[in-house]
Amino acid sequence: MSTEYHVKLIQQGNIQTLPIPQELTLSTSEVIIRKEDGKLIIEPYKKKSLLETLSNLEPLDEEFPDVDHPI
User: Fold this and answer.
1) Ramachandran region, residue 69 (left: φ > 0; alpha: ψ -120 to 50; beta: rest)
2) Are 24 and 31 within 8 A, CB to CB?
3) What is the DSSP letter of 24?
4) How many CB atoms lie within 10 A of CB 10?
5) pLDDT tens, position by position, 19-42
6) Which 8-state DSSP code applies to residue 42?
7) What are residue 23's phi and psi, to 5 degrees?
8) Is the pTM of this model over 0.85?
9) Residues 30 and 47: beta-carbon distance below 8 Å
């Protein structure tokens, strides 16, 4: 079973801050946060490579001009 930590949220105006115990510190400065079934999920943000981004694009139905022969 994993260790649980009880921490208090810090409220500053409209912003809540969550102090993360040292044992749970992430080795990144950016995270993805989402809500699932009433729980907050925090994951390290991983930038997608250009190949990953391009592989998820929809195919284009346009015809492109021949770049070898300028107009």
Assistant:
1) beta
2) no
3) G
4) 10
5) 999 999 999 999 999 999 999 999
6) E
7) -65, -20
8) no
9) no
Burial of 55 (0-12, 13-18, 19+ CB in 10 A): exposed
The answer to whether residues 21 and 5 touch, using CB atoms and an 8 Å cutoff, is: yes
Q: How far is CA 62 from CA 40, 57, 71, in A?
A: 42, 14, 18
**What H or E segment, with its residue span, contains residue 52?**
helix 50-55
CA distances for 23 relative to 4, 29, 33, 52, angstroms: 11, 16, 19, 32
pLDDT digits (tens, 9 = 90+) for 42-52: 999 988 899 98
Q: Residue 13: CA atoms inside 13 Å, Cβ hemisphere, count?
A: 1
Q: Please name which of 46, 9, 1 lies closest in space to residue 26, comparing C-alpha atoms.
A: 46
Tell me which DSSP letter residue 14 carries: T
First to last CA, the chain: 69
Tracing tokens 């930038």 back to the chain, one arrives at 47
